[in-house]
Design goal:
13 helices; seven-stranded mixed beta sheet; alpha/beta; elongated; two-stranded antiparallel sheet; about 325 residues
Length: about 325
């Protein structure tokens, strides 16, 4: 048998072994082959096929990200082409099989590899803390663009409501001197603190375990006035929760997503407290559902908020909007 024929035979044998195994629940693992070598390229293709066989979303990307992580890289593009044709070591093969088995449970890749990039930061990820999406990067970009464009707006400190991993606050601290972040989830508070410490920003970020729906008086009392209030709050309509991907349903914190019957429960509370928390020229930046800007404008026009509606921006996919208000 030639080397090429042996490689094809081994690859087919491993895949046959994989597909005869049941897709196990959380905690189960698929054992790596012990009697044959597997190259990086083979492992990527094998797991992409097996993920697809089991209905895992983005099967090829899932396989690529996991295997790149095991090899100490962000993506496989960071590897030399020749490395793709080299065999995984026994330890690497074991790690690949272990992490890919987690992905089989529908665990999001971000949780599987325990980190993800947000703008230019690499943040730790851990379930059930909400995974920041690209739309939220656009919210941060909007805020920073406004800062650069309006030099008469002296922003010294911001408050983030619902910090999750700390992605927004930690990104803004690249341009702002101080930030305050709060979240109702103790897991989120701990993860934000951990990410701040890893980035050396713990001295410039205050993190509080407070629920804006229940601790409004404490927030107004303990959080000094700020120039910017920013949030990616829960804004999904409750009825839309049923259409979420299985990855989200199984692993992410539903309270970070469900905004009530009209998606406005937490948004309304943020806007109610904003005038008490902002400085004279302060602004509010919110990521919301595309149906929300009209509702928010209506509240402003009725004089119910003590705020001015300044701007609406839509993200690139039209899956969310950014609303900007001012005092």
């Amino acid at each position: 048998m030639s080397q090429r024929e042996e490689t094809i035979w081994n690859t087919a044998r491993i895949f046959r072994a994989l597909v005869t195994l049941p897709c196990r629940a959380v905690g189960g693992t698929v054992g790596p082959p012990v009697d044959c070598s597997v190259t990086v390229e083979q492992a990527v293709n094998l797991w992409a096929q097996y993920f697809q066989h089991n209905g895992i979303s983005e099967p090829l990307l899932s396989s690529q990200y996991i295997i790149a992580h095991v090899l100490g890289k962000k993506t496989l593009d960071c590897l030399e082409r020749s490395r793709l044709r080299q065999s995984l070591t026994d330890q690497q093969r074991e790690n690949v099989w272990k992490l890919c088995s987690k992905r089989l449970t529908r665990m999001p890749v971000q949780y599987v590899i325990e980190e993800w990039d947000f703008r230019d930061l690499t943040l730790k990820m851990r379930p059930p803390v909400f995974i920041p999406r690209p739309e939220t990067e656009e919210l941060v970009s909007l805020l920073l663009e406004d800062l650069q464009r309006d030099r008469t707006w002296p922003v010294l400190q911001c408050l983030e409501v619902g910090c999750g991993t700390g992605a927004i606050s930690l990104s803004l601290l690249q341009s702002l001197p101080q930030a305050i972040a709060l979240d109702r989830s103790q897991e989120a508070v701990c993860l934000t603190k951990e990410n701040a410490s890893r980035l050396g920003l713990q001295g410039r970020l205050e993190v509080h375990h407070l629920d804006i729906m229940k601790d409004a008086d404490l927030i107004v009392r303990d959080c000094r006035t700020v120039d910017v209030l920013v949030s990616n709050p829960p804004y999904l309509f409750t009825e839309d929760m049923d259409s979420l991907q299985e990855e989200v349903v199984r692993f992410e914190d539903h309270s970070a997503l469900d905004g009530g019957s009209d998606g406005m429960s937490v948004v309304s509370q943020i806007l109610t407290l904003a005038p008490k928390l902002l400085t004279e020229k302060g602004r509010v930046y919110l990521e919301v559902d595309p149906r929300h800007p009209a509702l928010i404008k209506n509240l402003v026009e009725q004089g119910m908020l003590g705020l001015q509606y300044l701007e609406t921006r839509c993200d690139l996919t039209d899956s969310s909007s950014q609303s900007v208000l001012g005092t």
